[in-house]
Design a protein that fits this description.
The chain has one domain: Rossmann fold (3-Layer(aba) Sandwich). 43% of the residues lie in helices and 16% in strands. It has five helices and five strands. A five-stranded parallel β-sheet has the order 2-1-3-4-5, sandwiched between helices.
């Protein structure tokens, strides 16, 4: 079963980068949300009705409309689940990523893309996740 990864980010270019980074990696599935409210609501719904569809990893932007990344992180952490997702501060603004970690996130990962449209830092993180998962 693939590791389910969410990106919560209002910029389509960042969704494209994550999709490109995951391309050809069947050990991961991807789902993107463009705002925190929709993602937090969906997370709570799945926790109650389809926990097998919850993400294992959440890449969280900070500035994305009405509900910031730190607030979205708090809402996701408030939901009881059998396995808590890894929430990654994934903001272009370092202070935003730190705020996500302070709100209950787990780590910060640099958001950027190379010329081929992928994020090499995300690739390294995903490879390490697979090694740990065994």
């Amino acid at each position: 079963m693939p590791i389910h990864l969410w990106l919560i980010d209002d910029a389509e270019s960042n969704h494209s980068t994550v999709r490109a980074t995951l391309h050809g990696r069947p050990e991961f599935s991807f789902e993107g949300f463009h705002d925190g409210e929709t993602a937090a609501t969906e997370f709570a719904f799945r926790a109650a009705h389809a926990p097998e569809r919850l993400p294992r990893v959440v890449l969280m932007d900070f500035y994305m409309g009405e509900l910031r990344g730190d607030q979205t992180t708090e809402r996701i952490r408030a939901v009881a689940t059998p396995l808590s997702p890894i929430i990654i501060g994934y903001s272009s603004v370092a202070s935003g990523s730190r705020a996500i970690v302070e709100a209950g996130g787990d780590l910060v990962l640099r958001k950027h893309a190379t010329r081929n449209g992928t994020n090499p830092d995300l690739t390294v993180y995903l490879d390490s996740l697979l090694r740990v998962a065994g």
